[in-house]
Amino acid sequence: MRSLVPLVALLASLALAPVAGAQTVVEARYGAHTEYRFFDLSHTFANGLLLDGLYTGVPGLNELYLGIGGQLHPIKGLTITPMAYAVFAKELHERGVTLGALIALDRGGFKGAGFAGHFIRLDGDNPDYDFADALDLTRAIGKWEAGVSTGFFHQSGEWTWLVGPTVKRNDAKGQWAVSARFGDDTEVRFLRIFVF
Q1: Where in the sequence is the domain holding 156, given as residue range(s)?
Q2: In the chain, how many domains are there?
């Protein structure tokens, strides 16, 4: 755990560039058929420092992620947020760290969002894994967005993936979304985001 101190310090220093203002986001997702569950509470401070706590679950594994990151703005309309999470699960006695990045794009009428990461096992029976969740690319049409949603999971040499259409509607409180994703499984995913 001591080796994570320099990484956390680096992430905190990346957050020194000013952004538009502080923002809190609450996000809930549910995947029909796969029984995927996701609840996230994050807060971005005015200096770009992001604190994040989330629960994600599928049958047989329920994980708690507690993380810190810092926003980077390499070009107009693109935000990349490197993140470091402590990860815990009751099942498999899982303890570990996930290193990854949140990506947000809003440029030329196109919007993108997603997270990709690598889990490093520190204790327990769950091997290391790579994943990308809800990597979405949409075209904005007024308050609506339409496009594609994808994700993958890679563990012990095995890959699973999902891809399919997504439709989103933005309102004064945040966003509604639904996606139908196919591949190694079939999932209809519902999403609600509140921003304040």
Answers
A1: 4-195
A2: 1
pLDDT of 16 reads: 43
Residue with tokens 């327990």: 124
The C-alpha atoms of residue 137 and residue 179 are separated, in whole angstroms, by: 12
Do 138 and 147 contact (CB within 8 A), yes or no?
yes
Q: Structure pTM?
A: 0.88
Residues paired with residue 144 on neighbouring β-strands, in sequence order: 141, 169
pLDDT, block means (10 residues), the chain with 196 residues:
48 46 94 94 96 96 97 96 97 96 97 98 96 96 97 97 98 97 96 96
CATH of the domain at 150: 2.40.160.40
